[in-house]
Design brief:
Helicase, Ruva Protein, domain 3; 363 residues; 11 strands; alpha/beta; two-stranded antiparallel sheet
Length: 363
């Protein structure tokens, strides 16, 4: 919707990693240097860590977009809690190697044959393992064993491990990973963007979808965007996507700090938990079941000096709140019914009186 309003050729802040939107921040530039160095070494493990949303996948995707597909073949595995054997099956499947109904030895044999075949064809094989912090030590050991395959003094497989910060800590401290540590030739931890990089990031992405300066962003807007996102690309993308949508709906051609604040408040409302017994329908009150719909039941503000005993008493009373409301409704219903009878009698009397008055008037 906003793309049409602002005459953009696409969505600049989509959450799906897309290497074409890669932006060279300081931390990404340093990471790319380490990746290039590791790639030139042609062996071992290259590790990139970073918090969720810092752009690990986009970074490696950008690197591989620069590689000649005639000289490299690569595959990506996104891990869950896989054991060692299933990790091997995932690797085999990523390279298109059939492994159904095969035992571990047969899978390893097919992977080795594949690696030798690619070496003879003049291609290097690269494996990207994403979310590596999910793998147990046994699975990491299988990856290390795969990296041992060689043709003479040439390694047949090089691995890129992408993970969250806890993997870096685990690798540094676990005695079971000593052999893997010795095979790591390059590592880098991605940091969030600095404030001065946010405007460049936003405008870089906007330019890639034919941005003509509409909408414009004020310096105050950039400051608030950085403050909310913490310089994390995924959080920044989420906010900017909502900013453009809000801007289109409100027909804005400038995004200022007030606009950003409004959208931030909306995002924070979206993130507010809505579970819990906030609204109770009459039917629900009677049965104790069913969806939550109408009568609002709100806990009053507790005075700061209220003792723990008083609070406990309030919580206990709260258990009977629904029953008390039902009782009151039943009383009200009986009250209405009694008034219905009174009103009906009154209407009957008035109707009879009018008829008599008309009869006498006719005389």
């Amino acid at each position: 919707m906003y793309a049409e309003f602002y005459n953009l050729s696409g969505r600049p802040f989509q959450l799906t990693p897309d290497p074409k939107f890669y932006f060279d921040t300081r931390t990404h530039k340093k990471a790319m240097a380490y990746l290039t160095y590791g790639l030139n070494q042609g062996e071992g493990f290259i590790i990139i860590t970073g918090d969720i949303g810092t752009g690990k996948t986009t970074l490696v995707g950008h690197l591989f977009d620069e590689l000649d597909p005639q000289k490299f073949v690569f595959a990506k595995v996104v891990t869950t809690q896989l054991d060692a054997d299933n990790t091997l099956r995932m690797v085999a499947g990523a390279f298109g190697i059939a492994s159904e109904d095969l035992d571990k030895a047969s899978i390893l044999q097919r992977i080795e044959q594949f690696l030798h075949g690619q070496q003879k064809a003049g291609r290097r094989v690269l494996l990207i393992v994403d979310e590596v912090q999910n793998l147990p030590v046994s699975a990491l050991e299988e990856l290390r064993m795969l990296s041992n395959y060689q043709d003479g003094n040439v390694a047949l497989l090089q691995c890129f491990l992408l993970g969250q910060p806890e993997f870096r800590d685990h690798l540094a401290t676990s005695p079971d990973l000593e052999q893997l540590r010795q095979r790591v030739i390059a590592t880098h931890h991605l940091e969030p963007m600095g404030h001065e990089e946010v405007s460049g990031y936003v405008e870089h992405r906007m330019n890639l979808v034919d941005w003509s300066g509409d909408p414009s962003f004020t310096e105050g807007a950039y400051k608030k965007i950085h403050h909310f996102s913490g310089g994390v690309p995924r959080r920044l993308n989420t906010l900017c996507s909502r900013l453009l949508l809000f801007g289109a709906l409100e027909e804005l051609h400038e995004i200022d700090e007030n606009t950003v604040q409004v959208v931030i408040e909306d995002l924070e409302k979206d993130a507010t938990p809505t579970t819990g017994p906030k609204h109770v329908s009459v039917a629900d009150l009677g049965s104790g079941k069913g969806p939550i719909r109408s009568t609002h039941v709100k806990k009053p503000d507790v005075p700061t000096k209220m003792t723990g005993e008083a609070e406990s008493a309030y919580e206990l009373n709260g258990e009977f709140a629904a029953q008390d409301v039902v009782r009151r409704l039943e009383v009200l219903e009986q009250y209405v019914k009694s008034h219905d009878v009174t009103i009906k009698k009154t209407l009957d009397f008035l109707s009879h009186w009018i008829e008599e008055a008309e009869e006498h008037g006719g005389d």
